[in-house]
């Protein structure tokens, strides 16, 4: 089966047009949806919308049957002993929180230990930290080596008779490593410890057999395996689930209610209070059916693409590949000497290439590796060899552009043909939409950084000007790169210091990213022309929109610029 056949099942790729077709290498964040999943969701809302388990009329009965069939599909897919062991949740995060919450109600006590690994996603760290604080538990962490590979030999000394639970990712979301979970589960069971496996990154790429693994809990999200968002799965061994208290209470999970007392439903309904995400469940069922149909071909395509990706990345001078290159799903994290990760991500985006940049919700791992983040390329079955080759070519050009000993060069032969700013290249004052009164209006002819952006004729020239603008930034001294001034963005670090000087505001900042430093300088430039009172009236978002830079300031938590603007607003109130 060809990669093109698999790709044809995903309609989002049939809608790409323009000079730079969308290259989606961010599958670790979420996967695209096949037509069968989309059709299933549409059919539910257009033809069979009714609640489940609550009525005897025809449509409700049919919907309930489909709903429970999806549960059976999931149970069969991971080889659960019974569909009663499949609990619907919102996703991996809620599944882990559910287990942590109910275990804390009498099944774990002060003095017990919980063992995690340095590779874990925040969702498999924070819930355990919270119950550890509440109950007086100890968190112990299996370390990684200098590449980010789990040090299995250290696990023996950490898992002991005090261990109540071992929670570990099947696959590292940040690096792609396939962890030796079978070995760790066996070790945990020797000491009577429970085991929870975070399968969010594994479920779409590896066969999962929970009975063969002999784990106590296995959790994953629908949107990571071509299904909808907002639906997830908690697998738990039936004997364990039956002995645990409810997570939430309300409708559907009850058997009988009176003011003298309440009894609860049997599995799986005891853990499914309220109206469920019916469309999500049906969509996940369709996604599971899709994967079961094409599973072998999907895995073969993914591993072939991964080898080409890794071999190509190895040829880039100064690159550092993180993780276990020989035991990985089709995910590769890397960093490149003298080149900032955020800058790579921004310029890849200009080629319509989507990757993930930052700490990947794995801050402790990044701290263990001594880095602030990586660039992560995560593939799926619908990616193609041509895409991987194109990605490698573009990345090589970006590295040449960003390295400090290179002059700025166009990233590709076609790069100069895609401007994204307005065609209005005159030197008029910034548009009235950016201000709320005439006193707050700024004259662009007095601002060389903004003027250079307005006059740039192509996107590569605009980025050249942005990076040059960074040299004009009033840089915050390194001694002030401290928590007091840190502004959080998940893809880059920014430090901001605001000081009132009479009627004006003195701003200084720093970021390791050349592009972010340039954007900070451009943001600061008009503010130096305005009093604090005028800054309160000045609309920085409209100002940046007028320069064609508004898309760099978003609610996505990417580069921290939105948080910078919000912090300035707070300071001048």
Helix percentage: 25-40%
The residue-averaged pLDDT reads 89
User: Poorly predicted ranges (pLDDT <50, ≥5 residues)?
Assistant: 407-437
The coarse silhouette is globular
What would you report as the Rg, rounded to the nearest angstrom?
26 Å
Query: What is the CATH homologous superfamily assignment of the largest domain?
Result: Type I PLP-dependent aspartate aminotransferase-like (Major domain)
Using the coordinates above, name the CATH class of the largest domain: Alpha Beta
Percentage of residues in strands:
5-15%
Could you say what the CATH architecture of the largest domain is?
3-Layer(aba) Sandwich
Instruction: Kindly report how far apart the N and C termini lie.
Output: 62 Å
Total domain count:
3
Overall structural class, as computed from helix and strand content, comes to: alpha/beta
Helix segment count? 19
Spatial arrangement of strands, main beta sheet:
2-8-7-6-5-3-4
| Total number of strands | 18
